[in-house]
Amino acid sequence: MNGYDERISVLREVMRQKHVDYYVIPTADDHASEYVGEYYKVRNHYAGFTGSAGTLVIGRQTAGLWTDGRYFIQAQEQLKGSSVRLFSMGQEGIPAVAEYIERHMPEGGTLAYDGRMVDRAWGAQMEKRLAKKHARIQWEEDLAGNLWKDRPILTSRPVYELPLSLCGKSRRDKLEELREKMTEEDQDQVLLSSLDDIAWLLNLRGDDVEHTPVFLAFLLIDRKQAGLYAFKEAFSDEVQTALERDGIYLKPYDQIYEDVKKLEEITLLLDSRRTNDALYRCIGKNVRVVSKDVSRFIPKAVKNTTEIDNLKRIHIQDGVAVTKFIYWLKSRVGKERITEASAADHLEELRKQIAGYKDLSFDTISAYGANAAMMHYSADPGNCAELKPEGMLLVDSGGQYEEGTTDITRTIVLGKISDGIKKHYTLTVKSMLNLASARFLYGCTGYTLDILARGPLWDIGVDYRCGTGHGVGYLLSVHEGPNAFRWKQNPEQEAAVLEAGMVTTDEPGVYVEGSHGIRIENELLCCKGEKNEYGQFMHFQILTYVPIDLDGVDIQWLAPEDIRRLNAYHQSVYETLAPFMTEDERKWLKNATRPL
């Protein structure tokens, strides 16, 4: 029995004492965040799986981990020697977590979870499913977390304000617009739990989640003022005074659970997918709760002109850093010892030289050879691959800057690769440029356009088990909704129309287990185009300026229009970046962006 199975065994004994049949440990915090602080990594503690998405279900005799296509290979590796079974979500014959629990729950049984870690939408679904078996739910206690010895403490690092020169709209104006929508829809109060929503609305940033500049808080807003439930020690007197001028008053973080009990005879708006189950269950019984997507009330996905101008500037500087990194890598591989981890460290050092740099936007994925088939591979500095002048290195990276958030992937050819890999590489480039070149009528969603990227790969019977792209925040989460490119519909979530000002990644790829992984990623800014009798046409502007490795391109797989697009992109890359390069770097860049 390995260490993780021993921990599960101890938890099972507590489950037996509490008469619990199944215990669920999701990847979450009190705020339904995608990325969580160390305190909340309970699932990692029990399963040893380090991916950013996954749910662990522990029964009296069995245990299973559910994760998505980004992590199938990684999960297989990390669960080796464990009693935990991998359930590969979305694959034929694999039940969803809720379906599995309903199917295996005994009559009159008990499901338990920490209600703070499960969103209300999922909790309500389980109530409905388990009612058929007269089963009950225990949500009040953190059984798994309470057993974790030496659990990290909750962080409360300093919170700071963004000036208008960075955010483009005052906190007061944002709150006024939100209250106008509250009035239009007859909402008395709004409860926000999402950390990035709160940070954006209040023009505040923090450092409570690694690589994501947010702070732990809830926000309860009425027609005149708001209560900000957070750790007071994180706020300077100056920030507190500024908040109070705008009618926002600090309250203890956990007090929200008591204050919502006192609400009476009001209409309360919240998003049940972003509000935890425990908090929802505390809301006063006479409150009319309206659950809906709050993106209309918190339009952070649509960047304003200040944010867009800043993003354009910082993407150029970020592109300079990544391009210098590629030059450095291709010049030195095989001549000195470079590993996956040391390559990532060098890229981070280049980013740190950029004015306004604050942090990485996520842990850099630096994956050599077959490791790149794991979409979110993490290199262990003490035991990772050494790079050789052969094969490819996939580097997915990004930075958090005062002027915005970046996310870019390049797969760099280090030496000889097979014709088959070149075919995959070339069609990935074609796919990325195909989507970036889209012209479409307003009203389209990411579902509408996803086929433009996936099509060239589907034509050869290849797919990637993830979305094509995700929204990107502004000095916020590198993964931000509601905009995204994907083909599978989510019946529980309405697809977002692509609006001018939205920033979305474009990152198709090919992943062949045991062989190679390829991903090419740019960020796209959605823009308005021509308006005529057919309606408002839209298009994308590429924000990312970094050369695509022509050593991986086989021209036989490109049509004349594909070649034109690649040449045009490379011309803009050279013209934009050349002024920031040394003479040697500029000569290399000229060749790296040569027309085909």
Automatic annotation (TrEMBL):
GO cellular component: cytoplasm
Gene3D superfamilies: Creatinase/methionine aminopeptidase superfamily, Creatinase/prolidase N-terminal domain
Residue span, Creatinase N-terminal domain: 7-132
InterPro entries from the UniProt entry: Creatin/AminoP/Spt16_N, Creatinase/aminopeptidase-like, Creatinase_N, Pept_M24, Pept_M24B, Peptidase_M24_C, X-Pro_aminopeptidase_P
Residues annotated as domain Peptidase M24 C-terminal: 536-596
Domain called Peptidase M24: residue spans: 310-525
GO molecular function: metal ion binding; metalloaminopeptidase activity
Keyword line: Aminopeptidase, Hydrolase, Metal-binding, Protease
UniProt keyword Lyase, yes or no: no
Family: Belongs to the peptidase M24B family.
UniProt xrefs under PANTHER family: XAA-PRO AMINOPEPTIDASE 1 (PTHR43763:SF6)
Full protein name: Aminopeptidase P family protein
Organism name: Candidatus Onthocola gallistercoris
Organism phylogeny: Bacteria, Bacillati, Bacillota, Bacilli, Candidatus Onthocola
